[in-house]
Amino acid sequence: MANTRVTTYNSKKVTCSCGSHIVTGFADDSFITIEQSGDGVSVVSGADGELARSIDPSELFSIKITVQQQSRSNAFFTKMYYADKDCEKGTFSVNIKDLLGKDQFTADVAWVTKLANKTKGKAQNNMEWTLAAHGEIKEG
């Protein structure tokens, strides 16, 4: 019998904390997207074909967190957005972890970049919050 590798993913085992707030009420499909800002490692080719690489030192990330419109997390993100606009006190840490895997994102400082769009319809809708964060991804 061959050795068969079986892995498991469970969305309930993905945790997201923003400061002391635990994000709840995630959307039913994709609910967290972490994207590195900046250029990463770019390359320029000279006229003679010589290559020069540039490494972007930025550790800035864009995080999109999508929750249901009735999630308590909407109030948290709204409060932090206005705390930042009104008195520059809207920053918080972020910790996103897949408890069954080895993926983890941590940031000492993050903030809400703008309010989520509000959509009303026959059924509940989702709200997508965009955060900017200075952090790092740890994999495997």
Automatic annotation (TrEMBL):
It holds the Pfam family Phage_Tube_PhiTE. It comes from the Bacteria. This is DUF3277 family protein.
